[in-house]
Input
Amino acid sequence: MGFGAASGPIAVELARADLSVVALERGPYRPQPEFQQGLDGLRYATRGELIPRFADQPLTFRTDPSVEAVPRPNRMPSLVGGGSVTQAAYAWRYGEDDFRLKSALRERYGATRRLEYLEEDGAAIADWPLTYAELEPYYEQAEYAFGVGGWPGNLRGQIRPVNPEEGNPFEAPRQNDYPFRPLRDSPTSLTFRAGALQLGLHPFHSPAAINTARYTSPYGITREGCTYCGFCSGHACWNGAKSSALVALLPAAEATGRFELRPDCHVVRIVRRGNRAVGVEYVDGTGRAWMQPGEIIILGAYTFQNVRLLLHSGITGGGQVGKYFINRAGPLVYAVFPDRYLSGYAGPGAQSQSVDDFNAENAAEEKLALPADDFFVRGGVIYSIGQRHPLECYRQAPPGIPRWGVTFKSFLRDNYLRLMALYLPGEPLPYASSTIDLDPVHRDRYGVPAARVTRQAKRNEIRMARFLYRKGTEMLRAAGASTIWGRDLPVPVATMTHDVGGCRMGHDPGRSAVNGYGQLWETPNLFVAGGAVFPTLSGHNPTLTIWALSFRLADALRRRRVDLRDAARSASAAGG
Ligand SMILES: Cc1cc2nc3c(=O)[nH]c(=O)nc-3n(C[C@H](O)[C@H](O)[C@H](O)COP(=O)(O)OP(=O)(O)OC[C@H]3O[C@@H](n4cnc5c(N)ncnc54)[C@H](O)[C@@H]3O)c2cc1C
Ligand code: SF4
Output
């Protein structure tokens, strides 16, 4: 179900393994050359032409169960390739402790700092049922299949071994180098770098799933390099340099002759017989209803739709489906540099440099020195954002500047080329009170209830946001910014592009909905692919990890390591 970031790798790998694969995708098929007309910030990034309307994919949000949820705009697009088509394409690996957060926090702080406030706030931190080392080969497979550029920071345990200035010294060990080097620098990324170096931090080029020159993947698909057009995040790439399931996988799946793509087909229910899923009901583009049978059914429709369809189909995982939802809510910080021109009008969003000095527990000593009421666990990457169109800056004017009229126009005319933004995503934690369920009021055009999100930032997120905001402003000041502004609190309502949890993976059917392959304990021939299975989020963007998990599942299915009748046996065959 869906042909996007999570389901794409599974579809292509299973078709190549001679299985017969059908992809039911609710969005249209837009061949990549169509996007040569796509350099239009108003049409795509601002008005969201590729994003479904509320009646097609409704989503509601509330911060507290006592209030009625209100409709929220969806930010994920709907088309063949899904969010991978319009993403910015930052392509991070998670760190080793991201897969064992509960254990890592106990080891790090057990003796030194009491974490009762996390318990009081209902934090539900868990270890993943797999390790970084188990996922590492699949990270590499994803990096080569999609094409990810970067400098290695930790090659087989050697720190910054290739270019001592450029790799991320905090990254987990990789067995092999990236397929190619990162995007070139811009005035924005170099300004960020200068500020970071002033403060003794360790800046490096953000890894990105964007070809920097013509690249041929292991599937034999050749795509061109980036032209730095600047209509990237929120857009489909005009020449296919940005990697997505549409351009990096679909041709390989179709070449097998075993893959059938059915666009404009909206799945409305999973059909079960006993503990087996026997197929899905869907409505095609003409409005006609169908039933598609399948021996293995994989949900790859993004977190909200995956959870919503499970619940609507009566699959609750013993109450586990819908629990422990996590969304990214970190602040942004903006600045004006009076003495130089920056480059928000050109280049991809991911043309940036980053620091990981405040991610995970890399700043643990500094955090331990904070007053008890400011202490928090975890942190997040900080990076400069490459692409910033004038229309985006409209929402981001400094305090005192209205968003209309002569004053606003003068501000933009004088400062647009001098503006910079840093992203401080932070790592929100899972909480028992953060859920996705079915909205009792709102439904889509097919009568399926909307996904209703209940989530509120807690003390850990608020303290982390303040800390990261302070670090971001220090970096901008060190780089020479004059005016700095933003918000040192988590964004109150979800950003809705890094949404994970709701179908947590684990070892124990009593505490998780799926095993380490995303296989439902309750319905073992039904799988969830994508961020919904994440027990925790990490301070890095999620998509490379989504891709790696999907390649791992495809490999396990191909090698018949998954028991389609008993999810517990699959888990034990995989070493838990
Ligand atoms: C503007 C933007 C920038 C982003 N930047 C980054 C980034 O830099 N780095 C990063 O790591 N992540 C980024 N992301 C997030 C990234 O896009 C997601 O993590 C990723 O796409 C999630 O994969 P998925 O397969 O779960 O969902 P998707 O890729 O969205 O795929 C889901 C597919 O399922 C289809 N579908 C939904 N419901 C149904 C249904 N009922 N029936 C049939 N089909 C259905 C959808 O149409 C869609 O095609 C960004 C997202 C956006 C929108
Ligand atoms: S900036 Fe590069 S990757 Fe992004 S849309 Fe333009 S050509 Fe494609």
